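Take a look at my tokenised protein here and describe the backbone shape.
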Amino acid sequence: MKNQNLATPAEMVEDILTDPVLQSRISADAFIGLLMMANMPENEKPTCYQQVG
């Protein structure tokens, strides 16, 4: 079950690119991670269980 209230990585990247306050608060490494996630097909993203388990 997917929560539709959560922003996708692509939406987060778009928000950061348009908001100077967000730009000043995110580290370069975190932004790069979001860009990588935004470019990854949904079915290739690991689930929380896969990351921990």
In short: The mean pLDDT is 82. The two ends are 20 Å apart (CA to CA). Residues 10 and 38 are 5 Å apart (CA to CA). The first helix runs from residue 9 to 18.
